[in-house]
Amino acid sequence: MVKMIVLVGLLALSFCVAMAADHSPLQDFCVAQSNSQVLLNGLACKNPSMVQASDFSFSGLHLSGNTSNAVGSRVTPVATTQIPGLNTLGISLVRIDYAPWGINPPHTHPRATEILTVIEGSLEVGFVTSNPDNRLISKILHKGDVFVFPIGLIHYQRNVGKGNAMAVAGLSSQNPGVITIANAVFGSEAAISSDILAKAFQVDRRVVSSIRSKF
Ligand SMILES: *[C@@H]1O[C@H](CO)[C@@H](O)[C@H](O)[C@H]1NC(C)=O
């Protein structure tokens, strides 16, 4: 029995470490104090007696994002920066707009699972499982369809409909984080050595330079 409890405890611990999801709150709320200099995991709390409805609210998600850019999509986040009351609550939201054939390029959220629903148009969506299989799990979604991108996995969306598309997604972190693969690898500041990228992607260094010049 004791062994069993220890085993379950260890399992729970390893699960926490591996998944890196947001911790549970220790109070009703902890509205982020915007000007706090305190550094901690999350954001410092405002005095609860000073908290107002506006701390839990955001307006403007009915407005479409500007998709005039190289990838043809725009993510409008509603996370702790937009709603200070989300601090410690382990959840956030985004609106994503797509021009025709626009993509939300391959990226991962290091701290969140994402659940996405198509509000307008049609999207091809997909994620790739971790090594060694790297299996692509993908689907065409239409208005009202829902899809899940598991925490940490590389995923993308592409507008495959005739007009603009729009989706809304919930994420299991107050601050999901985004690592866009192309930008992180080819656009890092400072640059990763061309030799490393040439070998990693099995291409000539000139190809690396050519891709790098775009980021
Ligand atoms: C959208 O973004 C483009 C490129 O940055 C800019 O030229 C254009 O004025 C923007 N459109 C609107 C409506 O803000």
TrEMBL record:
Signal peptide stretch: 1-20
InterPro entries: Cupin_1, Germin, Germin_Mn-BS, RmlC-like_jellyroll, RmlC_Cupin_sf
Gene Ontology CC annotation, any one: apoplast
Cystine residue pairs: C30-C45
Domain of life of the native organism: Eukaryota
A Pfam family the protein falls into: Cupin_1
Positions with a binding annotation for Mn(2+): H107, H109, E114, H155
Major location (coarse): secreted
Subcellular location field: Secreted, Extracellular space, Apoplast
Keyword Lipid metabolism included in the entry's annotation: no
Keywords tagged on the record: Apoplast, Disulfide bond, Manganese, Metal-binding, Secreted, Signal
Binding sites annotated in the UniProt record for oxalate: N104, H109, E114
All residue ranges annotated as the Cupin type-1 domain in the record: 59-209
GO function terms (MF aspect): manganese ion binding
Family, similarity comment: Belongs to the germin family.
Listed name of the protein: Germin-like protein
Organism, as annotated: Heracleum sosnowskyi
